[in-house]
Structure to design on (223 residues):
């Protein structure tokens, strides 16, 4: 158990819909990272937050947005969903020495 | 742009048959190189961090080594429970925080 909690574990929805994925980092970690893992691609960095502020953006679509709240949990919002958005979405938090610890992921299926 | 290439894409071993996985990287100043294990449908599990060329780290049947251009994950006398995808990632000195750039992984299968 990494200590990073993600909900929901599985989500099935239709094209055009909007979903929210939630992440709670390890106790004491201030940073949250979101990654997407599709079948045909490795882990792709989406966005990073540190103590409530956005720190870095990767290949995140404009239809996607995220935020980190004062209690340090984070939410990733995916809207106008397309079939190609089906993937595993992982959240990670970082230790003071730089290692990322990942949650179990949220598997999104868009039909 | 940081890049990580892992080979082979897939590897099948018999139990007890030792082998090595390769990770080649290009990075704008290496802060750290990381190895993770990922089981199907699960999140990546941290294994090792290597910081400088010549460094080695060991954990049970796994040993990771680092040169200036690549890293190897040596698996000695593997068991079926070592079957997983092994991911290599780099952390750059010029990117924000602890962001990692991952390779596509090597899918290891160990047959009994």
């Amino acid at each position: 158990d990494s200590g990073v909690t993600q909900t929901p574990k599985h989500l099935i929805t239709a094209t055009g819909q909007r979903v929210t994925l939630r992440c709670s980092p390890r106790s004491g970690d201030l940073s949250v990272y979101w990654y997407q893992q599709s079948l045909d691609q490795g882990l792709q960095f989406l966005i990073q937050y540190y103590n409530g502020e956005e720190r870095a953006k990767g290949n995140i679509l404009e239809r996607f947005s995220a935020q980190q709240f004062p209690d340090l949990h984070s939410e990733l919002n995916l809207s106008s969903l397309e079939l190609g958005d089906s993937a595993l979405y992982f959240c990670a938090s970082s230790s003071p020495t730089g290692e990322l610890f990942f949650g179990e992921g949220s598997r999104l299926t868009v039909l | 742009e940081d890049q990580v290439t892992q080979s082979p894409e897939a590897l099948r071993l018999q139990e007890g048959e030792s082998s090595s996985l390769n990770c080649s990287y290009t990075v704008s100043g290496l802060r750290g190189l990381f190895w993770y294990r990922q089981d199907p449908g699960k999140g990546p599990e941290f294994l090792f961090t290597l910081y400088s060329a010549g460094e080695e780290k060991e954990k049970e049947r796994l040993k990771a080594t680092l040169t200036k251009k690549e890293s190897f994950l040596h698996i000695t006398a593997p068991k079926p429970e070592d079957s997983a995808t092994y991911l290599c990632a780099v952390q750059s000195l010029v990117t924000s925080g602890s962001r990692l750039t991952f390779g596509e992984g090597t899918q290891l299968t160990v047959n009994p």
Remarks:
- The CA atoms of residues 1 and 72 of chain A lie 19 Å apart.
